[in-house]
Amino acid sequence: MQRSPSLLLSLTPVIILIALLSFNVFVFHDDSSYGPNQLALLISGVITSAIAYFVYKMPYNELEKSAISSITVALQAMFILLIVGSLIGVWILNGTVPAMIYYGVKMIHPAIFLPVCLIICAIVSLATGSSWSTVGTVGIALVGIGTALEIPLGMVGGAIVSGSYFGDKMSPLSDTTNLAPAMAGTDLFTHIRHMLYTSGPAFIISLILFSILGFVNSAGQADLNSVDEILTILDSKFNITLWLFTLPILVVVLIKLKVSALPVLFLGTIIGAVYGIIFQGELISSMMSEGQNTFVGYYKLILATAFDGFSIESGNKMIDKLLNRGGMSGMLNTVWLIISAMFFGGMLEASGMLQKIAETILKAVKGTASLVASTIGTTLFFNITTSDQYIAIVMSGRMYKQAYQDLNLHPKNLSRAVEDGATVTSVLVPWNTCGAYFSSVLGMSTFTYLPFAFFNLLSPVISIFLAMNDWTMEKIDEQKSA
Do the Cβ atoms of 7 and 360 come closer than 8 Å? Predict the structure, then answer.
């Protein structure tokens, strides 16, 4: 007869993983996500399967099937990553990203850049319902503008992440915003209105903090000669025109119309290639070898940009670092990270260790405050161990649904706590699909933007604070009376 895993053995793979990841960060620093962390996740997954096989006599075939099934859950995210890599390379080639940087540098003053960055990302994400699409379009341009204005990279990344996740969280078009109330047992707009109590203050505080940081950093403003040089090089290398903005606008409109992300991003890449031929014919011709200015030559260059990224030697190191990026190959390391993370999560779930840890947490719940804190803590735990925000939302929603009913708490309290925990913290975990994606697209490590992702850090804290004071924790009976 198969035994249920003990708590001590269930925690063993998690402790080993945390120890390995911490040691990797200490030894490899920002390079820890380029191989060491993937191996740490694979090693922890193997240890999990060994405990399940030798101690609890679980069939290895079942463990392996579960791990593979877990990886398939993240396949859509991996495909999106690969297409976004192509899109970034092609959008740099066709001048869309350089145009965003060019006009952004000319229009935005360093003192207001960070709060403006926060607001722009919030609006785009609110309109599209997707933090991923936001960072993959306007996000990469804002990083370029911030670099040109000599604003610390972590602050720029924090503003992009904060704005993107506020919009994603509050948009009725967002998949996580629809999933959370479905799991908790409430309706979409009741859920969104209830999230205003936590997301509203978190956003306002973030706006204030970024405004302060903006004024502090503007004291040592960017070298205007350096900025002028960047504008001059962009203008000389690319055909900068406002017509290029029709492409990102088209992508935003299609996403707003609820067209799936994969076909929209693929279409954005295809149309982007056509825009390259229309608007950047001179640049493309200059990048091809002599005698290669033919249809086959254009085809080879555009495909090479899509799978291996954009590359140019402008004579300016900042411009080269800013624009020489993108391509599917640039995303392969992140795909490897996601596969490794989902392998570990699948083994942990198949062995029953994940469920054992969750059950133990539930036993410690005493009242409203501890229930909300446990819910948020559990979502963070699932984000770390299963590496997927959707799994964190679904499993936490299922686990705590009855507990909220037992305390006579309306289901919207559960859906809000799940979003305040699962959705916003997923991007703070380097090996989570969201953390890995944002890190790759923004071109910085998760730990670089984490200290400045104010909205994401404040949301769970405010949620727990409201529960401790029993504010906005609406009861089921109160809802009926209303």
Answer: yes
